Amino acid sequence: MAYEQYRRWIIQNFPDIGRGPVLDLVAGSFAGGTAVMFTYPLDLVRTKLAYQVVGSSKLNVKGLVHSEQVYKGIMHCFSKTYKEAGLRGLYRGVAPSLYGIFPYAGLKFYFYEEMKSHVPEEHKKDITVKLVCGSIAGLLGQTFTYPLDVVRRQMQVERLLSSNSGDMKGTVESLVMIVQRQGWKQLFSGLSINYLKVVPSVAIGFTVYDVMKSALRVPARDEAVIEVVTNKRNTHTSSLHS
Hints:
Elements lengths: L1 H12 L7 H42 L11 H17 L3 H24 L9 H35 L9 H12 L8 H25 L5 H21 L1
């Protein structure tokens, strides 16, 4: 929704920007950032709860946390995080998420629309073609931005390992620390497994979205924009004649 709205707004207010992949890159980037700002606290809670289950035994061995559960559930995690650090605590690690989602979402839409533009007209409605375009878009977008995703998760779980909020590092510091301590390869640790989730997810998402738009007879993006602009011009002309 955000992508379509940003795209329409850009075309209406900056008509000279043209209709091409650059437009999709900009609209996709802003749409991704908007989605993150609305949903990030949920992602933070998910990561904390997952890390609590996976990492609890390791943490107990190191004596970093007590044996009892830190968080009892989703709402408890929300309330405890808010009480400890306020709204800022719920958005801990949002900076690398935004750094990552802006290029990721932008590149995802960019690659998808760019590849579709090179597909022959008779094959553009082929579901297999859409899936292939979506898969490649997801793969490329994820590869370029994955290190920032690693940094984001590092920052999200840092609070569990640190008793002093002053010890917590920023985005750049966390990135440098990972490279120094574990090497640059750690920034791509888990990427191959992530492909198994992200690539089909992006491919299916783009494909279903296009198919549903076609089934619901939603006008093509440019057609809808042209219609809105034309109506505005007609209204303006009518008011002048009046």
